[in-house]
Design brief:
heterodimer; A: about 75% helix; B: mainly alpha
Chain lengths: ~240, ~70
Amino acid sequence: MYGKHLRALSICTAVTFAVALGLVFFYAPIEADQGFVQKIFYVHVPLAIVSLCGFVLGGVLAIVHLRTRDSRWDLRAYVAIHMSLILGVGVLLTGSIWAKASWGHWWVWDEPTLVSFLIVFLLYATYQPLRFSIEDPERQARYASVFAITAGAFVPLNFAAVRMSTGYVHPRVLGDTSNLPGPMALTFVVALGAVALLYATLCTYEMTAKHTRFQLRALRRARSGELSRAGRFGF
Amino acid sequence: MPALPLHEAGKYVAAAYIVVFALVLIYVTIMAIRLSRIERQLSDLLEQSVEPSPEPLEDLGAQESTLV
């Protein structure tokens, strides 16, 4: 049962999101350098972190799938990557809006953080076409898992490469939080928690829906078999 | 670039938050459509089990892959 804690999770997400928005607009101070535009940071960066962690999680779940050959792990890996892609769209859109407000351009090609995220996003954008181009379900799951593991290993490597690069135009967040004043750090952590909860809720939602569809399909097949047997034996 | 004035920056901040909200809303709408389809299929199946038809049902799931 995937939907067991869905209600509690949804309520928790909504409450945390409301608290995070309250903190962003009524508690966190306005940043001296960027001004009010810096408020985008509280949605853009948590989305990026959760999205990248989701891609890595997809790889980890794919490893479990290959080890156990249990299709439930494949479903989990698929949903983790699917949700990360949706959040990734949010990261790119909010990032573009922030770039326009801060730098005067919608996109800056010489900024390593932006371009590297786009590369990761485009890499994972090929996951679904790859997956659904294979008809045999077992082969589909196996190939998708191999892809998820390879691409999942690329994400931290890519992240480390960007941090080691010299172009430090993009604001650094992880490993340099001492620069963030207390109220801003608290707001950021709550916003990160809210986005992580949103990710977990949407994943549970998707898995519940998919599981229900599988069950319905199985029920249809069982009933179809029952009726054809009944027809054959003259019931 | 110098910091944008509040009236100018407000548009961008609002746009960023609206984009995220819209994204979640679109996803939830798609899920709601799928859910209503499942509900419809389930009620069809329930009707058929109450009054069993002599002809076998179509195996709709057979042609689909595991995750569609």
